[in-house]
Amino acid sequence: MFGDMMGMMEKLKETQQKVEATKKRLDTVLIDEKSNDELLSITLTANRTIKSIEIADELLEDKEQLEDYLILTLNKAIEKATNVNEAELAAVAKEGMPNIPGMDMFK
Fold first, then answer.
1. Domain range holding 14?
2. Whole-angstrom distance, CA of residue 24 vs CA of residue 17
3. Contacts by 30-37, CB closer than 8 A, 24 or more apart
4. How far apart are CA 64 and CA 49, in angstroms?
5. For position 10, what pLDDT does the model report?
6. What CATH number corresponds to the domain at position 22?
7. What does pTM read for this prediction?
8. How far apart are CA 107 and CA 104, in angstroms?
9. In this predicted structure, what is the pLDDT of residue 107?
């Protein structure tokens, strides 16, 4: 029984290390999002850190329009990044789950 417990603890520790490595790797995964008319372009990491924002000159003439573009495009980019982030971390966590009877809800 203690061997099983030690094995599970070791597997959980390995999984935690893989999760941390995945989080670091997600800092290098870039998500690009553009407004429908491509006047605004945003790049962020899968960990939701903004890397760049490109704004067409014509958007600089209308503050309210620019704000609307930023809100819409940032929200779309953040949603995409969150989906990538959650999928990657869930895959690592699922892979590392020990086989505990009754805990098969993750499979």
1. 2-106
2. 11
3. 31/77, 31/80, 31/81, 31/84, 32/77, 33/73, 33/74, 33/76, 33/77, 33/80, 34/73, 35/69, 35/72, 35/73
4. 24
5. 82
6. 3.30.1310.10
7. 0.75
8. 6
9. 46
| Overall number of domains in the chain | 1
Q: Summarize pLDDT for 77-106 with one digit per residue, the tens.
A: 999 999 999 999 888 888 766 555 555 544
Residues of the chain with pLDDT under 70: 1-3, 96-107
Q: Please return the burial class of 41, using the count of CB atoms within 10 Å of its CB with bins 0-12, 13-18 and 19+.
A: middle
What beta strand segments (E) does the chain contain?
30-34, 40-45, 50-55
Residue type, 30: L
pLDDT at residue 45, rounded to an integer:
96
